[in-house]
Design a protein that fits this description.
302 residues; alpha/beta; Rossmann fold; 2 domains; eight-stranded mixed beta sheet; globular; binds S-adenosylmethionine
Length: 302
């Protein structure tokens, strides 16, 4: 079985999960993802039997309903997706628009799965009225129902009896964290948040977010933060306050598909920040704590 990813999702960390995983201490009781999206890191950790308990949260309620369907009623979800997928043939455009309207009326999780499988870049976009408004991607047909069935069942097996789901603002879910957990934070990009795009239902306020990081440090709750990135010369690197005492790691994320389309051959990098209590758990002897700096030792640890 390969690692299942039934929820197509722009911003998914599926290609980075294996590079983030070694920063999670072996004896971690529980992984908490307050910005779970498609949950690539949790899926990776469950697949490799590294962690056995998860708290997954996202402000996007239909997305969490989709997670709930996968974990508690996968057969029904598979049947409906199969029906929707077959019904689209020969009238793809009209059918997609119809399902999008139905989703905006009902917020039903099976409609969201179909839309994510068929929309441009698997990108969740809502307009100012909170209506999903992403268009159809004409070049793809969406994941075949048989592949979808296999992936949904595999994810169900991995997480159904190990996971608590929430759809709250991340600040509320952080209240559940203890020093025995690791919190993985993958918020929407700050750059986009400042431009007030409708990429997600809600964008995060940076000052409020930094206050939460401080709070996590005060409570000695270990956390890993994915924040910004850079492609070639385009820097999105974002300095976080030194008082947070975070250790900076730069991860090579491979080639950016956008850059490849533009004929450029540039590597994308993603920034990761490790909290002081996480570093302590990981063993100061292996990972130096000067901050910020790139950890070239990382590949050897993995
Ligand atoms: C970059 S994506 C996470 C991607 C995820 N790591 C994955 O592998 O798919 C950020 C997520 O944060 C969610 N989000 C945005 N604002 C939020 C908030 N205030 N509280 C909780 N979740 C939020 C979005 O709905 C989105 O799914």
């Amino acid at each position: 079985m390969t690692i299942p990813h039934p929820i197509p999702y722009q911003g998914s960390k599926r290609h980075l999960a294996k590079k983030i995983a070694p920063f999670i201490p072996a004896n971690t009781h529980r992984l908490i993802e307050p910005f779970v999206g498609s949950g690539a890191l949790s899926i990776y950790m469950a697949y490799h039997h590294i962690i056995h308990q998860f708290i997954l949260n996202d402000i996007n309620a239909p997305l969490i309903h989709l997670w709930d369907s996968i974990l508690s009623d996968p057969i029904r979800l598979i049947k409906t997706y199969t029906l929707l997928w077959h019904n689209q043939h020969g009238r793809e455009r009209r059918y997609y628009d119809l399902i999008r309207t139905r989703f905006n009326q009902t917020h039903a999780p099976y409609y969201l799965l179909y839309l994510l499988a068929r929309c441009v870049k698997a990108s969740v976009r809502y307009n100012a009225d909170g209506h999903f408004n992403q268009s159809l991607d004409n070049r793809r047909k969406g994941k075949h129902p048989e592949t979808m069935r296999r992936e949904i069942m595999a994810l169900h097996q991995l997480l159904h009896n190990k996971t608590r789901l929430y759809s709250q603002d991340y600040v509320r879910v952080l209240q559940l964290a203890t020093p025995d957990d690791v919190v993985y934070l993958d918020p929407p990009y700050v750059g986009l948040a400042q431009k007030r795009t409708s990429r997600y239902l809600q964008t995060i306020d940076e000052a409020r977010f930094l206050k939460q990081l401080e709070w996590l440090n005060d409570k000695h709750i270990p956390f890993i933060l994915s924040y910004d990135g850079r492609t070639g010369q385009n820097q999105f690197h974002h300095q976080l306050p030194e008082t947070l005492n975070l250790t900076y790691v730069e991860l090579e994320a491979g080639r950016s598909s956008q850059q490849t389309l533009l004929g450029r051959n540039e590597i994308t990098y993603e920034s990761l920040y490790l909290s002081p209590s996480l570093i302590k758990k990981l063993n100061n002897a292996i990972i130096p704590t000067q901050s910020p700096r790139q950890l070239s030792l990382f590949e050897e640890i993995a």
